[in-house]
Amino acid sequence: MSFEVLAPHYRWLEFVLAGNKLQLCRTAFLSQAAEPNQVLILGEGNGRFLLECRKRFTRAQITCVDASAKMLNLARQRLVAESLPMNRVEFFHADALEWTPPRNSFDLLVTNFFLDCFRPEQLERIIAVLAASAKPTATWWLADFQIPAEGFPRLRALLIHRLMYAFFRVVTRLPACKLTPPDPFLRAHGFVLQRRHVREWGLLHADEWKR
Fold first, then answer.
1. Is residue 198 part of a domain?
2. 72 lies in a domain?
3. Which of 115, 151, 185, 188 might form a disulfide with 127, Cβ 3.0–4.6 angstroms?
């Protein structure tokens, strides 16, 4: 999987297709949270959440991981453009399926519009590795797509998902061909859903999970 080709175009594509809706999901809990010591952001992309996170958590150590070097460069440029300090932000160019974070290190884990990229067995492995890196009282924020249970919202979401996965599988070699909800894997590692904000007729959701 590689988002290198999409990196220069991702921002305008997101704006055209979704406006600010995805960003509202990414930042759903940011303004209400106490400042953590160590933050892990996995699959950050071009840095829109990272920018707001750095503004909100001025003293936190932030680890930002992405498989696309171009995306990481865009994320760095966002911080530089806002004259935000870089000394407490660490960037890793790494594949989530191969990267191993330090154990028992992070107070806050963030995976926004990222876990939907993986097949079930890959997702289970990634969540297990991330859970091992979380402190005993860690919080996990995630924003992602979902499929409503019934009616027109479900039909609408199924169509959007089909088009979305077809596009990303061709352009980025996305491993997944359909959405796998991460909920059972998170629960298996001791995380409990605290809040879920649902948007766009059930198509989008933002979750806060805690141990």
1. yes
2. yes
3. 185
